[in-house]
């Protein structure tokens, strides 16, 4: 069963990377069942996160929130592990996309702290990005831009290309209305990646 789980997970990741969302969901749902049968709450939580991301990409907001909440519930409150940090960051991102900037920034701040404690720089960078954009949209452009800049620095230092690209785009958009030269510089740097 562990080998089957690994193979199904890789198949799902490949399908998702190719934009085949429904093709990815089926093996991830089977992985979720296998992880539950194996009694592995960390894997269960991680598959809830992956299914939530696929559900969001498919436009299913309710399923997204349900899987994120079930993943967090599987781990329990106060748990400090990589799966919890990633679930919290993903829930922050979803709340941001749903327009709940206050909840998004609270969750992102929590994800930054937990990710830093665990040495999970991908979580830290992603959460800085979410937190910064949330603050900028709430009216604090300066603080928001400084957090997205921290995201960019972390992503570049750790070789997290996709996160760095998002940060470059977000910084270009944030500075576009107030500093066109700076916005273009961020856009150009992002294109070099």
Structure explained in plain terms:
The structure is a single chain. The chain is mainly α and 193 residues long. The chain has ten helices and no strands. The model has no long low-confidence stretch (mean pLDDT 95).
Task: List the uncertain runs.
Answer: none
Biggest sheet architecture: none
Oligomeric form of this entry?
Answer: single chain
Gap between N and C termini, in Å? 39 Å
- Tell me how many strands there are: 0
What is the radius of gyration computed over CA atoms, rounded to a whole number of angstroms?
A: 17 Å
Helical segment count: 10
Nutshell version of this structure?
The protein is mainly α and about 190 residues long.
Task: Give me some keywords for this one.
single chain; 193 residues
